[in-house]
Each structure stands twice: as structure tokens, then as C-alpha cells.
Design brief:
Two copies of one chain form a homodimer. By secondary structure, chain A is mostly helical. Chain A is built from 16 helices and two strands. Chain A has a two-stranded antiparallel sheet with strand order 1-2. The N terminus of chain A is likely disordered. Chains A, B: Keywords: Magnesium, Metal-binding, Transferase.
């Protein structure tokens, strides 16, 4: 429901927020009762998971405090839980989650999966902020800023372990996939570290980074409900759908930075922070002059606002905006193609709506 | 065999090295052919595991390089693989690992478990060095010193994931225990961070830290072969045996720092680095004067060598040496009690021999 908007303001007003960026505080979206109920159940279970009950010594309290601070921040929009919910609804025959035999058990399983997704996602944010030396996250001081790098690293580790432990009751297939997700996210964070301030990043590397940043966990939100529903034949397809949505999401975010559509955030932040976002990667590969310009800019100690603005204008004139729009279109089309006939079902409609809403950026 | 020595030089000349401390380079111990063969097989498999074949992009190469640097360092003595080997031999009826049906499969499983132990252990060293800002490890530059904190954090994460993935073929019981080990190690690292330079650490907290540092993974080396052998009734007992050995190992290390028995390492390093090792924890809890002394010492910016020496002498006069010896004796006795009748078997004899060798420090 809340995603079914096609104008450019959809993302800003929706609960979807790009991984790793401060969330716009817009009007609260209205949810159908059951979706809101699901998210509330996820948040209750998240709080329980973070209490780390049996380890309630000083270390347990500290870990709990730091991880609750970030995980239960008001600005967390639960994009991954909602996506899981939509996929599960699209997969269910009739309304699996409100009645019928086994409905309660399936609801509980879905809540668990959503909690796992949030734990893994939040752990990656915690580690990411250490790598970036970020001081703000979800409108609050980052965990590393408040408790130091040690606790941010160990807190992330603890959350990953907790997330994986929650998969134990569901069997080795689910565990195996969860480990694969974490491994790939770690791997792509290394690529991101290696790419910082680099002007020779290929589109392939950009994609590998985007895969780990949002793609694989969004994909997991598609494949996991399919596996749980015993529909392993379409798990790969829905994974692909989620994955393309995740990458599209990154691209929309890169576009917003280029157009300044993100209210409350400075334009051209990627240039300022020497982040090889898609438009920059495309432009540097398309033109040796642009690459030379950024080589010089990113090699300098300080980057003035005048330099940022003029490099940004050069970027816009290079055709990077149009190229990013084309890449975004491709991801949206691929996501919709993978979604196929599910797009017409409850749940599937919301997923399609989300994909369509990203078209607002084209 | 190599552990079956009862004098104080046993540890120095043996392959056992305290987790997290530079290893003494003594005479190479002689191993029975099969133990050496096992360790060689473990190292081959470790190298394979670290190659991260399918992810052979720049990030994969970097992760592989950094993790191989530390994991396959010459100074790594494979304490945990050897312990696993001893426990497995003690458990086997006849010589399970050289002939008989299924022997090859059991050997391969044991190699896998040993690799898992080394991956988890090495990952914890990598993260530990980030927390301690250590520059040396196993006689080489630490991973954080060579490649930076980011790669040390992510490299540790990648190795943990890889280690857990290697448990997948063995079923959920093994996976579950592996996750528990990683979770407890993380938890106790938090306690260690919290305890640094603190003068109010309780003996209970010291034990919780030692559990995570060596106890739980040493314990795992006892319980895992028992589980694999289908002898779950004694898994808990052998876990306890390994666990006490691990804690005894820490205590022997603390004693060496107090007596200066560790050639090539400065005496009283724990005082210098504000580490609440067992003798210090005991002394500070036994005497308010000693606590006040260390409060003053550890609150100061710089600690002079004269201050270290005089605080060390005060510690020795406080009875901390004898108290640590008593704690060590208790751990050794508990380990031997848990080992029970296995102490007379091949493999069990080596474990008992290791425990006895630690008596050299009494």
C-alpha cells in the first residue's frame, strides 16, 4: 500500500530508506492493519533478541544497549521486513497469515526471518560506520561515536551471531543461505574499502559493491519466504526480483545525490566524500578528461565547496544522469520481469508498486 | 608425545602457545608420524579454505593475502588442531585414523574441525589486535598494522563465516555449537575491553574473560570429536576437560609474566599494559592497599619502568604468585578429573601430559 506511488516523492515519504543513509522524516505512511501488525511483532521480537538474556553481565548489558540504540532507532523503517512480508503474501494462497491451519506458525517464522534480516542489516551498518568513521546514523550518534570502535565491531559480531542462531530451528538450507549472505556482504565491504577515492572503479565492481550493500539481503527477502513455502522452484526468481530492487534502490539514491532531490541532505555528497557512486563510475569510464578531473580532485587533501559544485556540474553535463537513469530502468525492468505474474497478487502489487515508484527518478 | 614433559620448560619448547601472545621459537618438537601428518593435512586444508576461490576479485585476493599471512605464519603452533587430534585418538577404539572402514572419512572430518578451530581462533586474534592496536603477532606485523583496521575487521568476519560454512556438512548440532563458541568469544572480548585498566575486576569476570579467550574453543576441541564419534554422553565431560586446560593455560601464562620465565619477553608486561591478569585481580581483591596502588598507577598517563618493577615486587610479596599457583592447580586437577579413564589411552596420555607439564609452573 504505502509503496504504491509513482511520483518522485514516493521514496521520501515511504518507509524505504537507502541502506546507510540518514532517513528523511516525512509523514508516517498508512499501512494495512496486518502489515503494521507484522512490523510491530518484528520490533517486539527484535527487542527480545537484543536483550541477550542469559548473558546479562556488564558486557551483555553494554552490547544490548549499543545494539538496541541503533536497531530500534525511530528512523529505522524496516524496509527488509516489509519486503519479506510482501513476498510472503504474494506467495500465499489465500490469506495465510490471518487464518487457516499453521498460520500462526508461519507468521512466527516470517517474524523470525524479518528479525534475522534486521540483525544482519544493522550489524553491517555498525561495521560500515567504523570503516567510514561515521558519526551519525538514523539521526542518532553512531555506535562507534557513542561507544567506540571496539564495541561497534564486537556489537556487530554479536548481532550477526544472534541472527544466524535464529535460523537454527529452520534447518541447514536456511542457515547456509544466511551464511552466504553475510559472507557476500563482508566481501563487498572490502571492495568498497578498496574503491574509496579510486578513479578506476569498473561498472562490474560497482555492481559487486551494490550487490553486497543492498542486493543480496533484498534478494534473501524474496528467496527465504519461497523456501519456507516449499516453493524452491521460484526461490531463485524471487531472489533475483529482490536483488534487482535492492540495486535499483542504490541507483535511485545515487540519482538523488546528483539532482539534489534529497531534502535535508547536501547535493553532490558522493563527490565530497570520494565515493565512486554509479554516476561517477560511469562518467570516469566514459571520458578520460572526467577521470583526470576526479583524480586531481580526490588526490587533494581538502575539497572546497566550489570544486564540488563545479565537478558536479561537469558530471551532469557528461551524460551521467541519463546513464544512471538507464541503469535504473534496467534494474526495475529486471525486477518486474522476475516478479512476473505475482505482480497482480496482494503483496506482489506492493512490490511492483515499489519498483514503479522508483521510476519517479527516471 | 611432545606434551609429555613435566618440567617448566615444557610449554616453551612445546607447540602450545598462549592465545594472543608472541610464540617462543624453541627447538621443534618431535611428533609421531600420524600427528605430524594430521597437522600437515590441516595446514593444506587451511590454505585451500583461505584461497576463497570463487571470489577471486581484488577483494578476495586481499582477504586471502591478509588471512593467509596470519593463519599460515610459521609461528602458529596448531595447539587446537593437536588437541582435537588427541581427543579424537583417545575416543577411538583401536586406531580409527589409520585403517578400518570409514577411517578416511573420519580423518577428513577431523581435519575440517581442526580447520574450523584455526579459522575461528585466527579471526579472534585479528579482531583482538584491532582492539589492542597491536602491531606484532606471531612474530610478524599484525594484519591491522599491514593492511589497516578495516581489512583486519572484515578479514576476521570473512574467516568466521568461512569457518562456520565448513560446519554445514556436519549438521545443525555442530553448527549450533560453533555459533555458540563464536558468540561467547565475542561476549568475553567485550568484557576484556571493559576491564582494561580497571582495578575492580572480580575473579568471576576474570574467569568469564579466560573462558572466551581460550576456554570455550579448547573445550570445543573436546566435545566436537565426542559428538562426531556419536558419544554425546561424554561430550560435555571432554568439553569440560578442554575448557579447564584452556584456563590453566592462561594461568600458566600469567605466572610466566610474574616470574619472568618467558624468555624474550619483558617481565610484568600485564602491569605495563594495564591488563587485569589473574595475579593482579587476586591481589587487588585481597588488599585495598594493592588496589589503591594500581588505581594510581593505571590512572597515570605514562608508567615508568621503575614503577612497573616496584609494583611487580609488591605483587609478588602480596601472595599473588601462590594464589595463582593454587588457581592453576585447581584447573589442572579439574581437567584431569574430567579426562578420567581416557588419560591412560593413546591421545589421552598426551592430554594428561600437557596438563602435567603445566605443573612445572607450580
Amino acid at each position: 500500500m504505502w509503496l504504491f506511488m509513482t511520483d518522485a516523492s514516493a521514496l521520501k515519504n515511504s518507509s524505504f530508506s537507502p541502506a546507510g543513509l540518514p532517513v528523511e522524516q516525512g509523514a508516517e505512511p498508512t499501512f494495512g492493519a496486518s502489515e503494521a501488525g507484522f512490523v510491530a511483532a518484528v520490533e517486539r521480537r527484535l527487542r527480545e533478541a537484543l536483550l541477550l538474556g542469559e548473558d546479562a553481565d556488564s558486557a551483555g548489558e553494554l552490547l544490548s544497549e549499543a545494539s538496541t540504540h541503533l536497531t530500534l532507532a525511530d528512523a529505522a523503517k524496516r524496509a527488509r521486513p516489509r519486503l519479506l512480508w510482501y513476498f510472503a503474501r504474494a506467495l500465499s494462497e489465500g490469506d495465510l497469515f490471518s487464518d487457516g491451519p499453521g498460520a500462526q506458525e508461519e507468521f512466527a517464522a516470517l517474524v523470525d526471518f524479518a528479525v534475522v534480516a534486521e540483525l544482519i542489516h544493522t550489524a553491517s551498518l555498525m561495521h560500515d560506520d567504523v570503516l567510514d568513521e561515521a558519526t551519525l546514523r538514523r539521526g542518532l550518534p553512531s555506535v562507534n561515536a557513542n561507544w567506540g570502535n571496539c564495541i561497534a565491531v564486537l556489537g556487530g559480531d554479536a548481532m550477526l551471531v544472534k541472527g544466524l542462531q535464529m535460523l537454527e530451528p529452520y534447518g541447514m538450507n536456511f542457515m547456509s543461505l544466511g551464511l552466504k549472505v553475510v559472507g557476500q556482504m563482508t566481501h563487498s565491504l572490502v571492495l568498497e574499502v578498496q574503491s574509496r577515492a579510486q578513479t578506476d572503479v569498473t561498472e562490474e565492481t560497482w555492481h559487486a559493491i551494490a550487490d553486497g550493500k543492498t542486493g543480496i539481503l533484498f534478494g534473501w527477502c524474496g528467496s527465504t519466504p519461497a523456501m519456507r513455502a516449499g516453493k524452491s522452484d521460484i526461490a531463485e526468481r524471487l531472489h533475483r526480483c529482490g536483488h534487482h530492487l535492492g540495486v535499483a534502490f542504490q541507483l535511485a539514491d545515487d540519482l538523488k545525490d546528483l539532482t539534489g532531490a534529497d531534502v535535508g541532505k547536501h547535493r553532490f555528497t558522493d563527490i565530497r566524500t570520494r565515493t565512486p557512486a554509479y554516476p561517477l563510475v560511469w562518467a570516469m569510464n566514459a571520458s578520460p578528461e572526467t577521470r583526470a578531473r576526479f583524480e586531481e580532485l580526490w588526490a587533494s587533501e581538502e575539497i572546497s565547496e566550489d570544486d564540488v559544485e563545479s565537478a558536479g556540474q561537469q558530471l551532469l553535463e557528461s551524460g551521467a544522469l541519463e546513464a544512471t537513469q538507464a541503469a535504473l530502468r534496467l534494474e526495475i525492468d529486471s525486477a518486474l520481469e522476475a516478479l512476473g505474474e505475482y505482480a497482480t497478487r496482494p503483496g506482489g502489487r506492493e512490490i511492483a508498486g515499489f519498483a514503479m515508484s522508483l521510476r519517479g527518478f527516471l
